[in-house]
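Appendix B. Extra example for self-study. Work through it before the problem class; the solution is given directly after the inputs so you can check yourself.
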Amino acid sequence: MEPLLEIKDLRLVFSTERGILDLFQGLSLSLMSREVLGIVGESGSGKSTLAYTIIKLLPGNARILSGKVLLEGRDILSMKEEELRRIRGKEITMVFQDPSTSLNPVFRIKDQMLTVVKENLGLQGEVARKRALELLKQVELPDPESIMNSFPFELSGGMQQRVMIAMALAANPKLIVADEPTSSVDATIQTQILSLLKKLKAERDFSLILITHSIAVAKEVSDRIAVMYAGEIVELGKVETVIEKHLHPYTEALLKSIPRPRGKSEMKRMLPVVPGQVPDLISPPSGCRFHPRCPYAMDICKAERPPYFNKDGSLVMCWLYSEER
Amino acid sequence: MSLLKVEQLKKHYIMKEGLFNRKKVEIRAVDGVSFEVREGTTYGIAGESGSGKSTLCMCVARLLEPTSGKLYFDGKEYTHAKGEELRRLRAEIQMVFQNPLSSLDPHMVVKDIVLEPVRAQGKNDDESVALDALEKVGLSRSVMKMYPHELSGGMAQRVAIARALTLRPRMLILDEPTSALDASMQAQVLNLFNELQREMKITYLLVSHDLSVIGHMCDSMAVMYAGRIVEMGSYDQLFYEPSHPYTLALLASARFLPEGVNGDKFALRGEMPSPRNPPVGCTLHPRCPFATDVCHVNYPDLEALGNGHFVACHNKKNVTEALEIARRI
Ligand SMILES: Nc1ncnc2c1ncn2[C@@H]1O[C@H](COP(=O)(O)OP(=O)(O)OP(=O)(O)O)[C@@H](O)[C@H]1O
Ligand SMILES: Nc1ncnc2c1ncn2[C@@H]1O[C@H](COP(=O)(O)OP(=O)(O)OP(=O)(O)O)[C@@H](O)[C@H]1O
Ligand SMILES: [Mg+2]
Ligand SMILES: [Mg+2]
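Solution. Structure tokens for the complete assembly:
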């Protein structure tokens, strides 16, 4: 089967006052139709930039040096603005972290929903209104009629986030990219939104890229997980494999550093921490970017960027898994 | 003996609304909260957004005037402490605020921010005091001259923690201290808190919506909903013998129910009620899978279950039974 989305050997840098920030140095990834891919990783590892690259909505100082982003074989990166407009919001839609910044505060939900429905589905009048109501029902919003007449500030964070999801679904997209969709809501609302995404995924035909800094959230809905560190996808595999049989030393460190409730009557303990700091990508470490913090680092790790190795069905960018070792 | 004792604390905000601000709306952010914290332990407060956790912290830190109720520190009442008494109290109780960036004075450099509490107490304000505190939270000398806007969220939070540490307080109030930090920074900061507790017997009041953090750090805890404590007790009691539907829902949403128990049964419907217009009876009843007729009428009292475990629910038996059954399946 052909993948829905394929990122091939993407190289991207930012020009900054301090110099060139070398973020992606050849990043590749593919996503199948109806698949949910969770992307996790430290702050600053490039998760959001990757999301924006997929819809080619990058800040002015970003430069793509090489690579392709193929949506069903068509290269998004070489498309003209007009062609892109036919893709953004229709074939690919985005849900952002903070709903209050992406909903327009001066318009009622009705106006914003109808715009999306009219533009993307070409519906008019009563038909458009019915469709908008249906979408609000699908995201399990109680009393959609009254929601339609509300302004965004009259809705709680969780309700706003569901309106955003309804709008993202409006055009029947092939791919939804959600960047930290649950970070601004609290635990019980987060659960509601994640189970909604799971339900929608089962009912409808779309793929989902879910970006989060929480492995627990990624685990809830994803089929596969990609772990990012300093602009690289260092491990990519099935959810259970990545969580239970993680391969990369960074994944191991990440999982170990997450606090967990103690067992019954268990003493309090210290969390293992990764020594050192996230590298400054203006002068990134040579070879494997994790090597200065890696407890298993070898000579080759300093010298050469590791390729991907295949292990237990996962891909891992780490010399520990080289055959010749 | 307990270091902190909170008795029937209430904080009601009065909001003026409508034409010419003639309509007054009362928001019962904290509505009769009592608990005690033993010296050298960590007391956790969990609860949904808007349940009154930050308001409670600000009252305990004497940064907000409570509407009613009493506060005791080390056996002495300080509910209305002022002047010199309040200044001395500040040396013993420090707070780290929920929003790191907005809690730092934008016109001061980090060094002065960190030294502010010691200066207010007329104590040694040598540069080394600031350096020492910053080092503890993993920041280097280079941040000393920076202004808050030059700091990332995570760095700002660590500066706020450093500032709270300079006076070596006996109690630290931590309002979501790690929610702005990513996984590795969070682990470092939580370790620091535990180390300080071991070394200096420091006492924490820790607010977090992340139950993993609460479950990792706390000796005892309370769960708040709509301004009240709905359940409190030891860590073991709340995590392993939860008796309130809301505690259960929180544990379920974080997947911390016993192995094999399907959390969907305990999920809540809908959202937190509007504080302007709370439901009659138990404030949870519109969302509660266990609600019965009585819940629509009366707010349940906090009842003792033994060994310091308290719960406010008309149907606590049904809740524990449901959990027992789910455990067996
Ligand atoms: N417009 C920009 N100009 C310069 N550098 C940038 C820009 N946008 C992002 N960066 C840098 O690129 C890196 C990746 O940033 P990105 O926002 O993609 O990370 P992220 O993984 O989404 O982090 P977070 O979890 O904090 O949201 C960071 O080092 C960041 O400082
Ligand atoms: N200064 C204020 N004036 C009026 N109402 C307020 C004020 N501060 C808080 N509130 C209200 O009091 C209630 C409790 O707020 P509080 O900030 O204490 O909740 P919280 O539990 O800390 O929530 P979160 O988890 O979102 O931080 C909320 O309904 C809030 O809107
Ligand atoms: Mg991001
Ligand atoms: Mg708060």
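Self-check: Chain B has two domains: 40-69+81-218, 242-328. If your reasoning did not lead you there, revisit section 3.
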